[in-house]
Description:
β4 (57-60), α2 and β5 form a beta-alpha-beta unit. The chain has 22 helices and eight strands. The relative contact order is 0.06. It is of the alpha/beta class and 457 residues long. The strands form two sheets. Strands 3-2-1-4-5-6 form a six-stranded mixed beta sheet. It has a two-stranded antiparallel sheet with strand order 7-8.
Amino acid sequence: MLFAGCDWSDQWLDVAVVDRSGTVLGETRIVYAQAPDPVARYQEFLAPLGRRWRATVTGIEDVNILFARSLAALGMDVVHVDPTRAARHRAALGIPKTDRADARLIAAMTLAGEGRPLVASSPAAEALRVVAHAHRAAVDTRVEVLHSLRAALMRIWPAAVSAWPASTGGLRSSQARAVLDAAPGPRAAARLDRKALAALLTEAGRKRAVEDEAERLSMIFSRPAMLLDPRVEDAETLRIKDLLVALDQAVQRTDVLQRELDRYYAAHPFHPLVSGVPGIGTILGAYLLAEIGDRPVERFGSGRSLAAYAGVAPVTWASGHTVRVAFRRASSTHLRSTLHAVAFSMTNHSPGAQAYYRTRRSAGDAHATALRKLGRKTILCLYHCMASGTPYEDALAFGYDPAATGASSLHRQKPLDEEQIARARDMLAAPGATVTATARALGVSRQTIYRHVLGRS
């Protein structure tokens, strides 16, 4: 068996091959411009070195590059060599920092068994990972453009920022984008009458209470506002229109990727398992499976290793009588952030998760610490279900009997307490009172007034 070390760059690959005794059998440099297929060139280089050259174990510091992924797709053994550990070996041995020396060092580390085998996921799982990362990047771009638009509006027209509440989508909603595209500044908005606003809202897709919404926006736009010089305002509106075009593109891009994400998520082998967990929807479930893959047992070996990879397993430092528990930062940032959102969502949908979170908070844990511990418990349960093939059950995961007296149940906080409900009824009993004015005074939606005060569905 042969052991190869590959030091990669943007223009070429340096390869060194050693045998079991550590003797260097050959070295080469594969230049991308001279070799259209570096994998085929690499196999041609290995063929004369040994009869079992196909069993060569290739070590590389980045297993996500196309060369390493192509080798794994052909069935060759690829191992990941930690770049930090390689740098420490280089410094300890006094080896100069060159591409050829790095290839030899990686080959020696591969021979010593200091590489982690690359466990390739199935094509369905790999495709989900690619689409999930693209969707995550699209969401980040949409948020960035939305913040830029908000900052631009605050420069000339602060009233427009609060004209559309976050409960209805805020500035990202299609209605807000349609109105701002027609009137990107305070002077242009003041010239819009209710009929024009109603037409814009209808074109944006609004079907209910169009006249009421148009009246509300007309009242906001007709209020006195701080104005700039018309020439400066025109320049600022050009900037706002440009950001609206970028926001429209970002929203459309995210919507397209959302549909593709749903399709690839449904094709994943563990989709039925993860979709059955309370609080995990399509996006969080797809993000979760994109980082875990469909071979968690072969890739991680245990639930504790998966928890450490997710960043929810603490790091313990002990020296003498001193013991310190620290947050694990060396982890997958994507999986850690996804697991934080999963834990937060489960506290509102899972009775066991909500009870566990409240227990940790009562014990003195901070909000983030309690969510991190809940995320660790969740990821361990998911690993057990994936490894054993058993479906997820919330009662078994958090150890409670749903049929027992005093069992864990969801406790949702009502949007209005008894005092606020009584106040709302008094306000509605006054002559000329409206549901809209009452909802605005209490800071809730009209649906909340209808449901909790008037008892209507």
